[in-house]
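Can't paste images in this forum, so I'm doing it all in text. The chain is below; anyone willing to post the predicted structure tokens underneath?
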Amino acid sequence: MWAVCKKELRQFFSSLTGYIAIAVFLLMNGLTLFVFPATNIFDYGYATLSNFFDLAPWILLLLIPAITMRSFAEEFRTGSFEILQTRPLTRWQVVSGKYMASLIVVIIALLPTILYYFTIQKLSGQNGIDTGATMGSYIGLIFLTAVFVAIGICCSSLTNNAVVAFIAAAFFCFVIYSGFNAASALPTFSAGLDYYIEMLGIDFHYRSVSRGVVDLRDVVYFLSVIAFFLIFTSKNLLKR
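Text version of the structure:
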């Protein structure tokens, strides 16, 4: 697994694509949080990173598919997947190796954002920023990232076209993140069913963890969704 992971990381950072993707993510967050008037943290009047945690999932919804789209699609297109199959690796080791590599890349992109916390903490008054809620939001963001990466890897295993893999991954990430929340608002589900429909979406559990309390039900949900897409990816590779 780690051999595949290291190979993927070397490929990703061997060109400017990886660095540009991370730089764009940080630039978009930085401009939104500290420059643009409508979302500027300094204009809020109190210490909070809520704007960042509201915005980050939408940026990751496009960034992660861009990172994962070539994982299997490029292997299928160039024929190197057949060479990979000759290695003493199981399907699960290949899937988990590519998954871990993409997840590490996204976490590397998230690490510099911790500076936002220290910046707001230094600039705030006596009370400072809510550390518990911020830690919970970061945990929720990591879980959300892990789910998006699993979806991206799965979509990449369905096609040999990286662009198609990107579009499919972005679409499914959008649907699972906010689609169920939007569907729960329909009048059809207003008789109590709306709550359970909303629970199927990532946004519900992401907001729950972001309150600073890590509920076991939220953890089980995230792990179950990750496992579902990775197992589906493994089964799809078996067909090939």
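The CA atoms of residues 70 and 155 lie 10 Å apart. The longest helix spans residues 131-156.
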